[in-house]
Amino acid sequence: MASVTSPVIFKEFCPLYYLLNAIPTKIQKGFRSIVVYLTALDTNGDYIAVGSSIGMLYLYCRHLNQMKKYNFEGRCESITFVKLLSCFDDLVAVGTASGRVAVFQLVSSLPGRNKQLRRFDVAGIHKSSITALAWSPNGMKLFSGDDKGKIVYSALDLDQGICNSSLVLEEPSSIVQLDYNQKVLLVSTLQRTLLFYTEEKSVNQVGTQPRK
């Protein structure tokens, strides 16, 4: 008897003009006209988050077809990484070229959800460009990595409005990827991949040979 194969679905891919048209291509700063580059991207079922070279985060709500903007206070610097999370509250973490990391707790219209935009800042442990961010599924833990090999753990208490951060690991090369699940942090650098067990503070390298 011949096996039954599932039908093939063809999809067309095209630029998201409705999103791109809501982001300016240039801004005016004094007498200068500054080109806006898109530098970071993350998506989930509710939002599309786009980071820019002018330090502005553009957050598009897919259900309401609305674009909102968030930025850091102080000097304008490029956003290098964004990471969305949808749990009890909608969260977005943002990293910049100088090592600043902030978490935005978004406003929700649903009953019992957050009704006021709040921002949490990771204290200045990172001193160089943020290259990776990873959430725990419940939004209480955020891990951030930079291009000097530092990995910072931030514990968030959204009810109390508290964010406590500490350096947990330092590698000799740039962090390129982070992923967290079940008290284990997967870390990839330019030289190696490892598993960091957050409870035991122990490291288990994946493979034996360094990357070339």
Uncertain ranges: none
Write down the CATH topology of one domain. Answer: Methylamine Dehydrogenase, Chain H
> How many strands appear in the DSSP assignment?
18
| Helix and strand element order | HEEEEEEEEEEEEEEEEEE
Profile the largest sheet.
Answer: 4 strands, antiparallel
Strand order of the largest sheet: 3-4-5-6
The percent of residues in helical segments reads: under 10%
Walk me through the structure.
The protein has a domain at 17-23 and 35-175: YVTN repeat-like/Quinoprotein amine dehydrogenase (Methylamine Dehydrogenase, Chain H, 7 Propeller). With 212 residues, the protein is mainly beta. The relative contact order is 0.10. The mean pLDDT is 89. The chain contains one helix and 18 strands. A hairpin with a 3-residue loop joins strand 7 (79-86) and strand 8. It has one helix at 17-20; strands at residues 26-29, 32-35, 38-43, 47-52, 56-61, 66-71, 79-86, 90-96, 101-105, 118-122, 130-135, 141-146, 150-157, 162-170, 175-181, 184-189, 193-197, 202-206. The protein has a four-stranded antiparallel sheet with strand order 3-4-5-6, with no helix packed on it. It holds the Pfam family WD40. It comes from Ptilorrhoa leucosticta. This is TCPR2 protein.
